[in-house]
């Protein structure tokens, strides 16, 4: 009966490792196990050819994982693409963070001393970008929190409908009519200036699928 070590030596010599590596029927884990078991059963350590193939497999696996993670980030649903993770300790006052599911501006933050479990904690106070409501949260400094992607854009005011919706024009000439006149003093100011035939640019703040006019200025064009 052929010795087990001899059998695996012959297998190591004659098996086409490149085909094993490229064979879609072999999962990543199986390819790794097949390569390692075969070469170690030989008793002499991994042959150079096997080592090269295993190294190539690791490179491929690392590259594929990076590509898949990037694809997940770019191709996820709209909610996921509106935030990104950041370590809590990297956040700063006047920056942005998601607290209780809301996009907030950080107005206060403090860090406690490292406790007996080895984690300092960050106390965050934020103001909702759209409602002005105050939110608070406490997070270990080494943990991640979601940060909203916040954008600002200027639009020329074209009209104000009877039901309070604004007709806005982008630089490209494209019109949109889905943003309401803001409440309070800002809304009253916009309406009064528009009725006095002033040419206005409105600044629209956007974050986490919400939008709101936050400022106005004369259109100097």
Summarize the main sheet: 5 strands, antiparallel
Query: By helix and strand content, what is the structural category?
Result: alpha+beta
Number of separate structural domains:
3
Mean pLDDT: 78
CA(first)-CA(last) distance = 92 Å
Helix percentage: 25-40%
Please list the strands of the largest sheet in the order they lie side by side: 9-8-7-10-11
Order of helices and strands: HHHHHEEEEEEEEEHEE
Strand content: 25-35%
Structure annotation, total helices: 6
Radius of gyration: 30 Å
What key phrases describe this protein's structure?
OB fold (Dihydrolipoamide Acetyltransferase, E2P); alpha+beta; 11 strands; SH3 type barrels; single chain; 221 residues; four-stranded antiparallel β-sheet
């Amino acid at each position: 009966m052929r010795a087990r070590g001899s059998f695996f030596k012959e297998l190591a010599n004659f098996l086409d490792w490149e085909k094993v590596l490229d064979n879609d029927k072999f999962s990543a884990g199986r390819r790794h196990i097949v390569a390692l078991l075969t070469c170690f059963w030989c008793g002499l350590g991994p042959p150079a050819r096997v080592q090269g193939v295993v190294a190539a497999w690791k490179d491929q696996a690392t590259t594929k994982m990076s590509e898949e993670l990037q694809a997940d980030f770019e191709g996820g649903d709209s909610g996921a693409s509106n935030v990104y993770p950041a370590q809590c300790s990297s956040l700063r006052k006047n920056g942005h963070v998601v607290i209780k599911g809301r996009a907030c501006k950080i107005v206060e933050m403090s860090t406690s001393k490292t406790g007996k479990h080895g984690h300092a904690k960050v106390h965050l106070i934020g103001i909702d970008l759209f409602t002005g409501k105050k939110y608070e949260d406490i997070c270990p400094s080494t943990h991640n929190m979601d940060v909203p992607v916040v954008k600002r854009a200027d639009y020329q005011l074209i009209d104000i409908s009877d039901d309070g919706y604004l007709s806005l024009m982008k630089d490209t000439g494209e019109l949109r009519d889905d943003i309401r006149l803001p409440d309070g003093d800002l809304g009253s100011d916009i309406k009064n200036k528009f009725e006095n035939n002033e040419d206005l640019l409105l600044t629209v703040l956007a974050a986490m699928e919400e939008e709101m006019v936050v400022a106005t200025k004369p259109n100097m064009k």
